[in-house]
Write a structure and sequence with these properties.
Layout: H1 4-26, E1 29-38, E2 54-63, E3 76-82, E4 85-86, E5 89-95, E6 104-110, E7 113-120, E8 134-142, E9 152-161, H2 164-186
Antiparallel strand pairs: 1-2, 1-9, 2-3, 3-4, 5-6, 6-7, 7-8, 8-9
Length: 187
């Protein structure tokens, strides 16, 4: 069927091909952003806020971002809760530079209205709009009504999400590595 040199050549090609699939899959980046905190005792009672109540936000978004200081970027798997209860749908996000109070605004729709929930703090994107992973702190506000103090603190995390193609590439690379090692032991 195959002679030894052809088998050896195929074995040596499988690992680089598998690794190139892995590298190609990792070039597209999906990022998860989470934010949580507790509203201050002076926070107003609205559909999105209530004094001394905990809130949590999470969503996934493509990086690099297309919404740097203007425009709204779509989000994936978004959730906003107030005291553990979902209160509206997060439909988009706009990121801001430090010169415009940083972080981002999210658009939340529900109960017949659309509201901006504003997060102020550092800029979380770099050159070309690439979102920067890490932990951040800031403040939350609703509709820019309580600048600059906001109505509560915010702890945020920006992290990469492993895409299915990346996981498949890792699996292929591991199988190829195991096959190459097994053949070396036999040879």
């Amino acid at each position: 069927m195959f002679n030894i040199s052809t088998k050896t050549m195929l074995t040596r090609l499988v690992l680089p091909v598998a690794l190139s699939v892995l590298a190609g899959s990792a070039s597209a980046s999906l990022v998860m952003i989470t934010a949580n905190g507790t509203y201050s005792s002076s926070a107003p009672t609205t559909g999105l806020s209530k004094a001394n109540e905990a809130y949590a936000l999470s969503f996934e978004v493509q990086s690099p971002t297309t919404a740097q200081g203007a425009g709204i970027q779509s989000v994936i798997d978004a959730l906003f809760t107030l005291n553990g209860v979902k209160v509206g749908n997060v439909t988009g996000v706009t990121f801001y530079p430090t010169s415009e109070d940083g972080l981002f605004d999210v658009t939340i729709t529900g109960a017949g209205s659309t509201t901006l929930l504003d997060f102020y703090g550092p800029q979380i994107y770099g050159t070309g709009g690439v979102l920067l992973t890490g932990n951040y702190t800031g403040v939350v506000d609703e509709g820019q009504a309580h600048l600059p103090a906001g109505i509560g603190g915010a702890k945020l995390t920006v992290s990469t999400v492993a895409e299915p193609g990346t996981l498949a590439g890792v699996g292929i690379a591991l199988v190829a590595l195991a096959a190459a090692r097994r053949k070396q032991k036999r040879g």
